Structures are given as C-alpha cells and as structure tokens.
Amino acid sequence: MKKISKDKLPQLWQKISGDFDLFLPVEKDKILNFSMWEDGEKVNLKKLRTNMPLKNIVFPQTETYLKFKSEGKKLSLKSVAAQGDNYVVFGARPCDIASFKLLDNIFLREPVDTYYKAHRDKGTIISLGCNDPEETCFCGSFGIEPDSAPKDADIALWDTGSELLWKSQSEKGEALTISVMDLLEDAGEENEKKLKEIQNEIKEKMEELPFSKIDPSKIEGTQQEIFDKEEMWNEFSERCLACGTCSYVCPTCHCYDVKDYDGGKSGERFRCWDSCMSSDFTLMAHGNPRTSQMQRVRQRFMHKLVYYPKNHDGVYSCVGCGRCVDKCPVHLDIVKVIKKLGGEK
C-alpha cells in the first residue's frame, strides 16, 4: 500500500491529466459534479455525494450514433463511434462504483452495447472511501461497504486526514500507479493500522444512520401479489409529480429513447435518457400500455425491487446512494416503498 500527501494532489492531477481525461468532483456555483479537471478548478473531495451520478460518463445523457445527409435522390449514412479519450475518474464513491456492475448486467450482456462498452473500457476508476456517510445514505442495505475497496475500482483510496492511502487493484491501476510513483510513498504498518481504525469508525457511523435498518429482503409476497397492491401504489402515485428527477439522479436507471434530429437535408440519430415517470414512456404505435401515473410509479419500483433481482440472482437495482431521497420534491422515494412492502406502516 502507498500513500500521498494531499499537498501533492494538484501535482498528481496535473500528471494524470497529461495522459488522460481526468474527471474530479468539481464544485461550481455550489453544485458538485464530476467534471473534466482543469488547473484552478475547485475540487471538493470532502463532500460525500455529487449532484449527478457517475453513469453520465459511461452512459452519456445524449449520444449521437448515426449521421445522415441527402443530396438529391442519394442518401448517405455515417456511423458515429463512441466519443472520448481514455479517462480517469478520481474520487468515485463505493455506491457509484457498485452501480457500474448493475449497468454492466444490462449493457454488456448479448447483444453487447458497443457504445457503453467503449466508454467502460476507456476508464480507470479510483475510489474514495466515505469517512462521513450522510443521513440519507443506506448503501449497507445492498451489501455495499462505504469503507471498503470496491472490487470494480482500479485503485482504492482512503482519507486519513493529511494524506490519502493508495491501493492498486488491477492492471490498469498498477500501470497508473507506476506512472505517478515519484509522488507516492510507502504507507507502512502504522498507516495500515490507522486505516482499520478509520474503517471501524465508518461502520459505527453507518449503524447510527436513520436508514441503517432498511432491509429489502423483508419485502413480502410474490411478484404478482406485489403488483396487485393497487391501493398502496395509488397512495404513492397520488403524491408523484412525474418530474422524472428520481430517474435522472439515479445511478442505476438505464432507460433511453432514440430520436432523430431533422436538420432538413441532414440530421442525426441519437439516444437520450428516458424516464418511466414520463407519460409517453413505452408509447407505441397502438398506444401506451401504462396510461395512469399509478402504473408508472408501480413500474419504477417493481423494476428495482422485484423484476431486476428476479433476473439477476437476487441483486436489487439500487445502491442506496440516497440521491432520490434527497432530491424528490414530494419525498416519495424507494426507502418508503421498501418499508411499506416489508410490512412497516
């Protein structure tokens, strides 16, 4: 294990950005998001959660994949490859990294989504443990450890105060580590002992959080029985504004629509994020199978808590990041649904 002084981080970022696009949690107008780093940017590694999840890097909000142009009676089509260079994400939290695996289950199964795969293959992911989990965090409910070294991280970091401990976990991580070795030092046994103390402190903090006892495994009933709880789904849907915020801030939501931009004699075909909260979601030529807000609300939570785990060995389509809890304007979130389906009033 290595370590790096926080004073050397600007040098580290400068060095990494010479070979990669470097994404860091950058604060602009008091809003924190992962953005491509430039010297002088205000980086905030202390704040736990970014406004938007990391999925935008591997699954862009909009992405063009075809351009077309007409000249007389001739129509030319040109495929557009996935854009972007090799990149490094520095400071990804364990919950966001866990979401990549859930997205992989969708986009990397046959037939493989070549655009998503291209974005995933170009990335080197550096995690950062969560020293101070927020009140709306409940990642532990889905088996995610905020103090851990996520398996899908190429390098794992922990904040010990004035330094970051550094552990390489993959070939990509080892290659990056070697390239910045002049800025790193050996951590030594003392720091490894300190890390264990920090990890124990984080576990204790997690146990004290309001949502620490959320347990999706307590959800009762068969798929059909849960689906048929119309009174409950109506109760939830009456509060929903159908704004779609929950879908856009969720790290694991992956629905998209395909649209054409008509520029007259030229245009583009692109895909863009979609939301099951929208009234035209699943709209087809013969109509829409979900005509009420109740049906759309039910679809969202059935997918995350019933359909997805049924098709993916019991894994839920949620990582407990708490963004939907924090962002929903009417406080309708997955925590309330889990509690209700688990028998709580």
SS-based class: alpha+beta
What is the radius of gyration computed over CA atoms, rounded to a whole number of angstroms?
22 Å
Main sheet: strand order: 3-2-6-7-8-9-1-10
Low-confidence stretches: none
Work out the helicity level: 25-40%
* Major beta-sheet overview: 8 strands, mixed
Taken as a percent bin, the fraction of beta residues is 15-25%
The SSE order reads: EHEEHEEEHHEEEHEHHHHEEHHH
State the total count of DSSP E strands.
12
User: Terminal Cα separation, in Å?
Assistant: 47 Å
Shape: globular
SSE topology sketch:
Elements: E1 2-5, H1 9-17, E2 21-28, E3 31-36, H2 55-58, E4 62-71, E5 74-79, E6 87-92, H3 94-107, H4 114-121, E7 123-128, E8 155-159, E9 163-168, H5 171-179, E10 185-186, H6 188-207, H7 223-227, H8 230-237, H9 245-249, E11 256-262, E12 266-273, H10 293-311, H11 323-327, H12 334-341
Parallel strand pairs: 2-6, 6-7, 7-8
Antiparallel strand pairs: 1-9, 1-10, 2-3, 4-5, 4-12, 8-9, 11-12
In short:
The chain is α+β, with helices and mostly antiparallel strands and 345 residues long. Helix content is 33%, strand content 21%.
What does this structure look like?
This protein has about 350 residues and is of the alpha+beta class. Helix content is about 35%, strand content about 20%. It contains twelve helices and twelve strands. The chain has an eight-stranded mixed beta sheet, sandwiched between helices. Strands 5-4-12-11 form a four-stranded antiparallel beta sheet, with no helix packed on it. The termini are far apart.
